[in-house]
Amino acid sequence: MKDEYAELHCLSNFSFQRGASSAQELFERARRHGYRALAITDECTLAGIVRAWQASKNTGPRLIVGAEMTIDDGPRVVLLAENLMGYQRLCGLITIARRRARKGCYQLLREDFCEPLDGLLALWLPRRLDHVEEGGWLRSLFPDRLWLAVELHRGPDDARRLGECLALAKQLGIPPVASGDVHMHARGRRALQDTLTAIRHHMSVAEAGHWLFPNGERHLRPRDVLAELYPPSLLSETLRIAERCTFDLSQLRYQYPHELVPPARTASSWLRELTETGARWRWPEGVPERVTQLLDKELSLIAELGYESYFLTVHDIVRFARSRHILCQGRGSAANSAVCFALGITEIDPSRMNMLFERFLSRERNEPPDIDVDFEHERREEVIQHIFQRYGRGRAALTAVASSYQGAGALRDVAKALGLPADQVSALADCCGYHHLPSAERLRENGFDPDSPLLHRVLTLASELLGFPRHLSQHPGGFVISEYPLDTLVPVENAAMEGRTVIQWDKDDLDLVGLLKVDVLALGMLTALRRTLDLLRRHRGRDLSIATIPAECPATYDMISRADTIGVFQIESRAQMAMLPRLKPRTFYDLVIEVAIVRPGPIQGDMVHPYLRRRNGEEPVSYPDEKLKKVFERTLGVPLFQEQVMELAIVAADYTPGEADQLRRSMAAWKRHGGLEPHRQKLTERMLANGYSGEFAARIFEQIKGFGSYGFPESHAASFALLTYASCWLKCHEPAAFACALINSWPMGFYSPDQILQDARRHGLEVSPVDVLHSHWDCSLEPSTCAAQPAIRMGFRMIRGFSEEMAGRIITARAQQAFMGVDDLCRRSRLDERARTLLADSGALHGLAGHRHRARWSVAGHEAQRPLFDDLPSEGESDVVLPLPSAADNIHADYATLGTTLGPHPLALLREQLRARRCRHSSELAAIEHGRPARVAGLVTGRQKPGTASGVVFVTLEDEHGMVNVVVWHSLAERQRKALIEARLLQVEGRVEYQSGVRHVIAGRLTDISELLDGLDVRSRDFH
Predict the structure, then answer these.
(1) Which end of the chain has fewer CB atoms within 10 angstroms, the N or the C?
(2) Where is the Polymerase/histidinol phosphatase N-terminal domain (predicted)?
């Protein structure tokens, strides 16, 4: 048809800091202008091609897959995939170019084109029209598949350029074609495109000069405008090329690796054999008949859907970890099954849960299984490298995460590009939320004029930039493993970390193209649990595992219900601790509910309070009808889990399993891409047709929106609940070993080693200081003189800045012979000056030198022994009488070197001054009635700002008697931000709130009284 057009050269915002529009915007614009097809040709990447494919399906214009590339010392070309073979060649070229260069760059050489290029079409983008040699070389590579791209952008010499291009094409015998070099969907993005160019070149827009395009013509132009610029033959040629490009991403076929199956076995028979062997290990006294039937049912369904190799691969990874004594735990939609329990992938005995396997792996939905495996955070790299070695870099890679611009980052980059001074850039970014740009009020509070034209321009451009992909980073552990080379499916590039490679697709795009991934994730609590179990075997003679820890212990649930959960897994946060006395878990499934309920989905969907009221008998449990009773009975009629939402759609709105799975995907992605609105109409209409009220349908949809990208599957909650219970049981029954392991596994969780040790001491545990005569690198256990539990001996790791190498020297020398004094220690351990000073300042020389002043004197007088006199005893200096350090001196030194103290709490020394300020201590709050005013003060040990709390900040204060939980409403947090964020010792005036066993202070006024600490080095663990 006359004037029809297909754009063959278009960059999306996955050409980072080049393209100024998303694929959705580009395809919507292409549809509006009547384009037949649109090629997304980002520079040497296919990172955004899956999203472009979805945009094409949503709008109409057909997607052509391609990439723009510049060859070293060679031409610039656009390569288009004509068919599947061409797509595979394109992926291979991108992989070669990316793997050759550091992350974020590529290097494509002429010799890379020696391999056959069948299936690829090429557009030559000549930088100069006298480069005939480049054209001839390309023509030899792409016979009958090369075009000269004519790109006209209303420059001063378009007519001359058109004539020269046509002459060159005729000279070389290659057809010319119209092309747009599109960088944005509409002209209005010109300012953002200029800004992105400046960001890319690390300069301001004012300095960018020739790097910027001379006008805004690189957008998707109407066809009548194109007809004014190009001869009809060049426009019609775009359609001929588009017709040749028949490749579609739906043609990709992913296969899971099969080499884990021994010769003469099938994947199905081998999985069954491993499962039966594992079942005998799990149930040594005989596999119960019910379990046997369950295993048969699950194995039959796995075989029917063809996912045996997936389960075998996960089993192989877990088997490797167990062979290296690396603790791991599987979770996910298929992990909490009898098969996974028998294979050792998970520790959840199916008898402890009442969940149907079909809910996770269904022949109706035919969706892939999902198993995430958590490993000890300190040893996960061993597992990752094992996977790379077993399958090779060609067949295994991590999936990518498309990191996007958030509020502060977008504001910082735009402000810098528009020439704001560095101090203003930082100040502007500091007053910005993570996701959102600052309000006019916030800007004024920080000294900015929101009505300033320059600032208005900065904010406008930053708002356009929000959500744009910024770069590709690696997923924490999502592996894609393939039977065939991965670069036949997707390009592979280097990760920032040495020894790792990633595919170019974001983790959220994999399901759409049928790629399965196994998540190999890191979990600090697993490190702590493994260390605890090791300590129990070594010091307490108890050989336990996560699966054999005694179940359903009343004492453990009593501890949980008191919210005595500092340091445990999942229920240690302020929000969880506030919920525990209200929910009062008494069974394992109660913990599953607890783990899931204090999350953004249930909170934003207003599901928490109805559930609590029903659980506590304050509100009757009701169901719209008997069909939905089966869906919601286990959660008292309130939807708490992602699976329940899918079941509801099937039961109440007649969704097919496929539609329900699409609802799940939309729920997971709506925060980023939207897409839930079509389900609102469909759900509402079908529920009304089935007799449900409009009010009920509206409430259900709001709850679905509340889940957003935070919908928590029941299977994940169950796996987490198992680790929660294990950590709570250990804290309850073996608190010394648990606290010791937590500190040795730090950094992890919400709490610092100081808070863990303070909590241990409040529970009556004995803690011994770091001592060169007894300590090891890690904290350790030793017999206690006065308690049933062992004492915790602080290790050298507690000394800030002290190296593990120096600690090893001390331990080795001590094992050979006891130290005779400080000089003997320094000489035989070959301690450098820094190590000697740290040991003296931390009090670790107390057993050899006495108090700190004497220790410092002793190390100051040490001189390194000459090799000639190694065997001669050193002559120590005569004793000098030095004054004892005061309690304040010791506390200051303890916090400066160890971050904690075993002496009196700092606030015990300040209590008189605090009483003069009418500040109560934490234990006195119990006597204050609900709603009464109170003034408290404490060391700030943590600040938290949950995403669901509407700007509320939760502050934890610590004094000599315990913790005080403070709630700072958003308005106060904004007014007194400086005191809130900067105070180390904070005074709070407010009122006491007491409800269902939870007590906290609602702040009304904050005062920074850190000057009372006199330089004491106390640190908070904020926003973790």
Answers:
(1) N
(2) 6-73
